[in-house]
TrEMBL record, chain A:
Topology class, membrane: Lipid-anchor
Biased composition, class Basic and acidic residues, residue ranges: 7-16, 221-238
Boundaries of every EF-hand domain copy: 110-145
Subunit organization: Monomer. Homodimer; disulfide-linked. Interacts with SLC9A1/NHE1; the interaction enables an optimal Na(+)/H(+) exchange activity.
Protein's recorded name: Calcineurin B homologous protein 3
Organism of derivation: Bos mutus grunniens (Wild yak)
PANTHER family: CALCINEURIN B HOMOLOGOUS PROTEIN 3 (PTHR46823)
One Gene Ontology term, aspect cellular component: ruffle membrane
From TrEMBL, chain B:
GO molecular function list: potassium:proton antiporter activity; sodium:proton antiporter activity
GO CC annotations, alphabetized: apical plasma membrane
Membrane topology type: Multi-pass membrane protein
Superkingdom classification of source: Eukaryota
Species of the source: Bos mutus grunniens (Wild yak)
One Pfam family per UniProt: Na_H_Exchanger
Keyword Lyase belongs to the record: no
Keyword tags: Antiport, Cell membrane, Ion transport, Membrane, Signal, Sodium, Sodium transport, Transmembrane, Transmembrane helix, Transport
Domain Cation/H+ exchanger transmembrane as annotated: residue spans: 169-440
Protein name: Sodium/hydrogen exchanger
Length: 238, 788
């Protein structure tokens, strides 16, 4: 598998599976080899070699996503120990732009896939729900860059956000009713709700637009979030 | 061009002193200032002292002791230089008195206008041709500081990531003018770095091409060989400059390796070596700007680690000061020299020059960026191209060069001057003023933040980080490769050679201490930066489970998020010639400090929470009296304290400052403290035995304990009643239990130091971490004094 780029057939096969062009595959393969140190598979430790990633507050979640069986379409839970190049491509393919030639249904499907990937990052225990604990965890990690933010404040932010999600998804709740967590449907719902899906202002994210900068011309990963039409205005474009 | 006679000279100083604002005579003197280096050097020697000295002041032959003498020529040059700089600085102050002005009109325009005004006065008073900005002064004294500053503070990484594009873009725009305008309008990082890099590097082009064409003009015939020689010359000049710069930069870094015993002159080396590189390059007719840029970029990383913190600050401030003054002077002189008789107006020539300049710029940018877009992963959009083209301002370099034209070769030099001035003024004024609205207009898609929900904000940030992370995983292969290679080489050889080993650990501690003191003072002076928001809203919304958040609460939460969510890398550049913006490391360090301060404060508040009644804000008491809810209080308790600290920060800080100085922190005080602090600690930290409290360590002499830090809250403790609030303790216990329940959760701290960009503070923070001086997530007092 590691020599996929040399065998054109294999490349073609990968093209079909992941939708990448052969150029992109080659590019990614080079990167893959660089990451793995010329090994056929990547393990978690290999990601330590990415210096830029070190600064990422949700680094562990990102790395984890690469090994998540759900994302690799290999199972409903658990983590893989190592991934090969095809798996790597599979993960990367989540970040491919939505093809302009696709019809509406495909686009919807594609978006859903992308959102599912994101959902899996939140839902770390594969429970099918983003529980409060998981949500807090995410917020804490996000805020971890700022040492002067208390963990408790991160929690209450998460709590607030959770309640917001609850109110969006469930509507009015009884006082004793317990909202167990955001299911994927809720997740989709909250992304679709026009109120919630307000526009993004992220000037600071400007220029962070292109995921695959390695010359592979894979842009438009902003579609990952799924709301393409509205957010193209709102999200920072490369 | 020579100054007025002795009589006027004699009066001048008095006039100068009295009429500084009018500045007419001062302006007249500028002539001499500008002419000075040349005039002194060559023929026109100023009148001998005897004839200059004001009559009656110094009896020459009879040597009676004079009571009062006036010897203006003696001090003339420095006097005038000082006055000019003073004037420039005052003008700057003047602009900034009115806040909105600099945002509407670029400062460069205002300065030029002041210059024109002065020039007009000089022209009217003296009826002499006003001083021209002499190229010697400009190139040897005014330009280097600006370039040095820009090079030193150049964000290296984006620069090298875009270097290919930058090289493609280079054309003869002016670094001074462009930077002056672009640093005011906040365009995105990539655009900025393109313009920034372009304007820096284009000196090689401008000056070289200028010399090239000048010599072509002087030649009778131009052969093909000359053209090739010209091209070769171009590369020699550029690359030669860079090599000289790099060489001297390394030497500078190497020198600072040995300066630890003579800290005082450390900053000097930075300036001397960079200036030396500039001068040396100029001596060989290489590009001085390239040299000084390369020198600054080479040395800054190593120098920064070698010199002491004080020297480092000095370097930064001095650099900013020099460049700021230079820039101001350049613009004023430009204005001054504009007014005069050296003009020749020709509508056709001027208009065509202007038109061609603009068209050429636009054409160059659009065509070249189209080409480079094939190779770029993130292509430059039309908007970017437009802004780059629009930002092609001409400025002082152009101005200086046009005055440098030899009249013998160019008999109609005046026409050239006029045309150049028109182009400069058009670009600086019209383009410079309109570029900001234009950028804003093109960026209209700034959406309404008000509607954003909290979860959405979190989601988006999360998503941004995912994007960035994936981006990093994919990597920019080519760059990464070379960067990694260089990093390895750097670690292996260069750093060993250039950076002093055995950096004493204590220096980190001392740096930290200094920072702490500095910030403590700063905070006391300004009122604390409100880093900790109020959490009232959050608590409220938690309480009534499903209540919709009110807009106010939403704003608050959003505020917290937007201010505190870790940003994906540093997207906005912090370069500004006039302000020394705290760089990332400093900011991070500050955060650590603030954070520490808060935790300390909070812990003390907790201890002394009973005596809060004499200052109790409404929110505080409200929460204290809250009925015990299952989940809320433990959070509340803390939050309240935090918000307390934040909300009342300004006054408490202000009052704390003086009090701190009066209240002596004797050993008994600390004992009191310790006894008072003890009770909550065992509960909070029962699971962590390594966090132990040793009263002895609280002694101000202990190195890790900056007294100023502890100072402010202390008095409150001193006055606290010894009894302990049971109510506060119980929630603490709850907190601990929750904490203990997930010990696997990584402490948020671990991310903190990693964010620090430079090794310096990174190191510091890590060591702090190692010493366990600060540990987020924990709020007890014990966290500050961990015994290792």
């Amino acid at each position: 598998m590691g020599a996929a780029h040399s065998a054109s057939e294999e490349v073609r096969e990968l093209e079909g599976k992941t939708g990448f062009s052969s150029d992109q595959i080659e590019q990614l393969h080079r990167r893959f080899k660089q990451l793995s140190g010329d090994q056929p598979t990547i393990r978690k430790e290999n990601f330590n070699n990415v210096p830029d990633l070190e600064l990422n507050p949700i680094r562990s979640k990102i790395v984890r996503a690469f090994f998540d069986n759900r994302n690799l379409r290999k199972g409903s839970s658990g983590l893989a120990d190592e991934i090969n190049f095809e798996d790597f491509l599979t993960i990367m393919s989540y970040f491919r732009p939505i093809d302009t030639t696709m019809d509406e249904e495909q686009v919807q499907l594609c978006r859903k896939e992308k959102l599912r990937f994101l959902f899996h990052m939140y839902d770390s225990d594969s429970g099918g729900r983003i529980t409060l604990e998981e949500y807090r965890n995410v917020v804490e990690e996000l805020l971890s860059g700022n040492p002067h933010i208390e963990k408790e404040s991160a929690r209450s932010i998460a709590d607030g956000a959770m309640m917001e999600a609850a109110s969006v998804c469930v509507g009015q709740m009884e006082p004793d009713q317990v909202y167990e967590g955001i299911t994927f449907d809720d997740f989709l719902k909250s992304r679709k709700n026009p109120n919630v899906r307000a526009q993004l202002t992220s000037k600071e994210a400007d220029g962070g637009g292109s995921v695959l900068r390695s010359g592979s011309h894979l842009r438009g990963h902003h579609d990952l979030a799924g709301h393409r039409h509205r957010d193209q205005d709102a999200r920072p474009l490369p | 061009m020579e100054p007025a006679g002795p009589g006027l000279r004699g009066q001048a100083p008095l006039l100068l002193l009295l009429l500084l604002q009018a500045a007419g005579p001062a302006g007249a003197r500028a002539e001499t200032l500008l002419d000075a280096p040349r005039a002194r050097g060559t023929s026109s020697i100023p009148p001998s002292p005897a004839s200059v000295v004001a009559p009656g002041t110094t009896p020459f032959e009879e040597s009676r002791l004079p009571v009062f003498t006036l010897d203006y020529p003696h001090v003339q040059i420095p006097f005038e230089i000082t006055l000019w700089i003073l004037l420039a600085s005052l003008a700057k102050i003047g602009f900034h008195l009115y806040h909105k002005l600099p945002t509407i009109v670029p400062e460069s325009c205002l300065l030029i206008m002041v210059g024109i005004l002065l020039g007009g006065i000089i022209f009217g008073v003296d009826e002499k041709s006003p001083p021209a900005m002499k190229t010697d002064v400009f190139f040897l004294y005014l330009l280097p500081p600006i370039v040095l500053d820009a090079g030193y503070f150049m964000p290296t990484r984006p620069f090298f990531e875009n270097i290919g594009t930058i090289f493609c873009l280079i054309s003869a725009v002016d670094p001074v003018a462009v930077l002056a305008v672009f640093e005011n309008i906040h365009v995105n990082e990539q655009l900025y770095i393109l313009v920034f890099g372009e304007s820096l590097l284009n000196d090689a082009v401008t000056v070289v091409l200028y010399n090239l064409f000048k010599s072509f003009c002087q030649m009778k015939t131009i052969e093909t060989v000359d053209v090739f020689a010209g091209i070769a010359n171009f590369f020699v000049v550029g690359i030669g400059g860079v090599l000289i710069g790099i060489f001297l930069g390394f030497i500078a870094a190497f020198t600072t390796r040995f300066t630890h015993n003579i800290r005082v002159i450390e900053p000097l080396f930075v300036f001397l070596y960079s200036y030396l590189s500039y001068i040396t390059a100029e001596m060989f007719h290489l590009s001085g700007i390239m040299a000084i840029t390369a020198c600054a970029m080479t040395m800054n990383k190593y120098v920064e680690e070698n010199v002491s913190q004080k020297s480092y600050t000095t370097i930064k401030y001095f650099m900013k000061m020099l460049s700021s003054v230079s820039e101001t002077l350049i613009f004023i002189f430009m204005g001054v020299s504009t007014v005069g008789k050296n003009h020749e107006w020709n509508w056709a020539f001027v208009c065509f020059t202007l038109a061609f300049c603009l068209i050429w710029r636009a054409l160059g940018v659009f065509v070249l960026t189209q080409v480079i877009n094939w190779f770029r992963t993130i292509p430059l959009t039309f908007k970017d191209q437009f802004i780059i083209a629009y930002g092609g301002l001409r400025g002082a370099i152009c101005f200086a060069l046009v005055f440098l034209l030899p009249s013998s070769v160019f008999p109609r030099k005046k026409l050239f001057i006029t045309a150049a001035i028109v182009v400069i003024f058009f670009t600086v004024f019209i383009l410079g003023i309109t570029i900001r609205p234009l950028v804003e207009f093109l960026d209209v898609k700034r959406s309404n933040k008000k509607q954003q929900a909290v979860s959405e904000e979190i989601h988006c940030r999360f998503f941004d980080h995912v994007k960035t992370g994936i981006e990093d995983v994919c990597g920019h292969w080519g760059h990464n490769f070379w960067r990694d290679k260089f990093k390895k080489f750097d670690d292996k050889y260069l750093r060993k050679l250039l950076i002093r080993e055995n950096q004493p650990k204590s220096s980190i501690v001392s740096l930290y201490k200094k920072l702490e003191i500095k910030h403590a003072i700063e905070m006391a002076e300004t009122g604390m930066i409100s880093t900790v928001p109020s959490f009232a809203s959050l608590n409220d919304c938690r309480e009534e489970k499903v209540r919709k958040l009110t807009p106010g609460e939403m704003d608050e939460i959003r505020e917290i998020l937007s201010r505190n969510l870790y940003q994906i890398r540093q997207r906005t550049l912090s370069y500004n010639r006039h302000n020394l913006t705290a760089d990332t490391s400093e900011r991070q360090a500050k955060e650590i400090l603030i954070r520490r301060r808060h935790s300390l404060r909070e812990s003390i508040r907790k201890d002394s929470s009973l005596n809060r009644e004499h200052r109790a804000s409404t929110s505080t008491s409200r929460y204290l009296s809250l009925p015990k809810n299952t989940k809320l209080p433990e959070k509340l308790q803390k939050k309240k304290n935090v918000s307390n600290a934040g909300g009342n920060s300004s006054d408490s800080d202000l009052e704390a400052g003086p009090r701190c100085s009066t209240c002596s922190l004797g050993p008994d005080a600390s004992c009191q403290n310790s006894s008072r602090r003890k009770p909550p600690r065992p509960i909070k930290w029962s699971g962590r035995t390594r966090w132990t409290w040793i009263p002895g360590r609280i002694n101000p002499a202990a190195p890790q304990l900056p007294t100023v830090k502890r100072g402010p809250p202390r008095p409150r403790v001193c006055s606290a009643s010894p009894s302990f609030p049971k109510a506060t303790l119980a929630p603490c216990g709850v907190t601990v239990s929750t904490k203990a329940s997930n010990p696997s959760r990584p402490p948020g701290w671990s991310e903190g130091p990693r964010n620090l960009e430079t090794g310096r503070v990174d190191l510091g923070a890590r060591s702090l971490n190692g010493n366990g001086q600060s540990r987020p997530g924990g709020t007890g007092p014990a966290q500050l004094w961990r015994v290792t």
